[in-house]
Amino acid sequence: MAWQATLKRVDIAYQRFFKGLSGYPKFKASRHYSGWTYPDARQGFKVHSDGKNGYLELKDLKLKLQMRGQARTWGKVSTCTVFCRHGKWYASITVDCQPERTTGTGAIGLDFGCKVAVATSNGDLIEPPKFYKTQLAKVKQLSKQKRRKRAPNYKKKVKASKNWRKAQTKVSKAVRKSANQGQNWVHQTAKRDSKE
């Protein structure tokens, strides 16, 4: 299925070129694409779930993976994208459904920004917890250790050393932790305010 996704990307690139929307397609190494997509639920994958937990079956890989969590709304499964981020694999499943949201009686506007985490239409400003700041010292220390290893140079065809890859994994893990904490805080804040 990975080669089908590659062919589809190449086809889209050439179509854009012939329409005059972009330049001539250039070769891009596989490291830029850390996953693949199953475009149809009838081939390649099957979801054994009703929206709460369940299993994801990848037929071509002969894998059956346990799904955790509960979807807010469930419907007909259409596509599945498998991708790798910071050394961990994730599956994103697209579902055709009619979203149902429970909200409170009042109305409030939320603006998620960079300077202030959340600004409400009432005039309240919510400051974010400094997740990245707490991890920054650790990230700097790990990055310093990584700089002492042999880094990859794709132009000179120099491969990264095993120790560099190990150090890179540690840096990615520390950054991912702070990013996940921040994203989780944003979701929890939005959910709490929408239900009030």
Largest sheet: 3 strands, antiparallel
User: What is the strand content?
Assistant: 15-25%
Q: List how many beta strands DSSP finds.
A: 9
State the shape: globular
Please report the distance between the alpha carbons of the first and last residues: 45 Å
Number of discrete domains? 3
Radius of gyration: 22 Å
Mean pLDDT: 82
Task: Output the helix-strand order.
Answer: HEEEEEEEEEHH
Number of helices: 3
**Which ranges are low-confidence, i.e. pLDDT below 50, for 5 or more consecutive residues?**
none
Spatial arrangement of strands, main beta sheet: 1-5-6
Q: Helix proportion of residues, in percent?
A: 25-40%
Secondary-structure class: alpha+beta
